[in-house]
Amino acid sequence: MQNEGKMQKSFRSIPYKTLWRPFMKAKFKALIVGALCLPAFIAPTVFAQTYPSKTITIVVPTAPGGANDAMARIIAQGMSQKLGQPIIVENKPGANGAIATEFVARAAPDGYTILFGYIATHGINPALQRLKYDPVADFEPIGMVAISPTLLVATNNLPVNNAKELVALLKAKPDSISYASAGKGTAPHLAAELFQINTGTNMLHVPYKGSAPAIVDTIGGTTQVMFPSLFSAYPQVTGGKLKALGIAGDKRSSVLPNVPTLKEQGIPNMNVTQWYALFAPAKTPKPIIDRLNKELNLTLNDKANEKKIEDQGAEVETGTPDQLKNLVQKEVVRWKKLVDSAKITAD
After folding, report:
1. Helices 230-238 and 211-220: crossing angle, nearest 10°?
2. What pLDDT, in 10s, does the model give residues 280-294?
């Protein structure tokens, strides 16, 4: 009892400040840590509320005047009106889109530099090139823009009117037909390789530097066949300068409803739908991505913009960032399998 009394007396004799100092220090440290962490939670939200406050740049991986460039400018004009800031289009062609894609991957993740990506930048290139970017890890998907099936076309002088007749001609005269592409490792090249694998035929490949010169030479008869996107070839087909032999997709196109799919003509596994989408650098705040996705979808759902895109031969395709991410992951696997199987190289 005496010891207990001494302990109580000793405890009472400890100064109040001394007794509470450890607790106060712990509380102070917790407040400091909380204050330091607070910006990490509120900064993205505050940034999103003030975003955008300056000009946004959409980087296009192809040259001015092409199909990708035309669609990017439609999107830029519509989103600019909704975001209340100018949006400029900057073309950085080269390396089948890899130059522009790497540039955006290394840009500041602030929502002011975004990429107009497509099937090559986030699907085909990873299978063919040693890239300095990862199509999944280095980007935040914003949303889909449009899809355009690959179209099998032929010069008007070629004596065929559909894909079945082309296959018959190729089997009767092997290696007698040449096909143009936008370059080695591009979507038109891989579509043609897939066509030959699925039909057991052989054609001579003539690569060009872009779709435009390839289409021009196919119209002129220098090359006889091509597999461009419908988006690229639509004006020439509707203008009677090229013959449409089939759609390389699971269904007919709404803009060319009378052209049958290759599947309808007995050629399976020919779904080569080209797609177009917007991407931001990795670590761009989610509120920024959500804002861009919202305004992109509103722009695409505008009837006037939808018609502009359809007039180019593409179909509007909206969606969420997660849906676009899933698409990219599947495309990387799919094209790697084809490239390895056909032993295709980009050089």
Report:
1. 30
2. 999 999 999 999 999
